[in-house]
Amino acid sequence: MHVSTVLFLTPTLFLSLSLSLSLSLSLSLSLNSIQGPLLAWETYVNIAKARLVNQQLLYCRVGIGYHLQVLSNGTVGGVHEPTEHSLLMVFAMKRGVVGIRGIKSGMYLCMSQEGIAHGAFSSDCLFKESLEENHYTTFSSLSHPGIYLALSHKGEAKRGTSVGRLQPCTHFLPRRAP
Ligand SMILES: *[C@@H]1O[C@H](CO)[C@@H](O)[C@H](O)[C@H]1NC(C)=O
């Protein structure tokens, strides 16, 4: 893979690509003898994606540092030490556009027009994922441009209309779940 290609990848795509590369290496060792060339590259990628979306954490660097969580009553916030509610599925819909779903609650993370983050059973809550210069990732609402996902110093959801991508409260780091 060319270095220039890597630079254009968003974090989620990059994670899934690098994961699929390493996964395909180990898979080809075990499966090649059975199915040979019939097992398409696409299959490797899909398996890797399924693994990837299983669980991950989104760490926000604001305050003492919080992991984003979606509670079962739809409340979105942060927790310092990860809990089962901070296990998230971050899936890429296309390059730079992701959905975020709490695994325990089954709810998608949505952003209202007023900038209130909440969980809902609607899959059309999408975010534009941007890799910032400091290597942190920001998530802005796809349907409400300029509204950012953010946590306060106390780890509560912060109104997305009053923050910007240069503020630490909007800076997230994808992490593998323990
Ligand atoms: C949601 O649940 C959390 C934790 O149980 C609780 O602190 C919070 O008040 C609840 N929010 C609503 C809107 O019910």
Automatic annotation (TrEMBL):
Q: Which Pfam families match?
A: FGF
Keyword Signal listed? The answer is yes
Signal peptide: which range, if any?
1-28
GO molecular function, a single term:
growth factor activity
Q: Does the record bear S-adenosyl-L-methionine in its keywords?
A: no
Which SMART domains has this protein been placed in?
FGF
Record's keyword terms, sorted:
Signal
Stored Gene3D superfamilies: 2.80.10.50
Q: Which family does it belong to?
A: Belongs to the heparin-binding growth factors family.
The name this protein carries in UniProt is Fibroblast growth factor
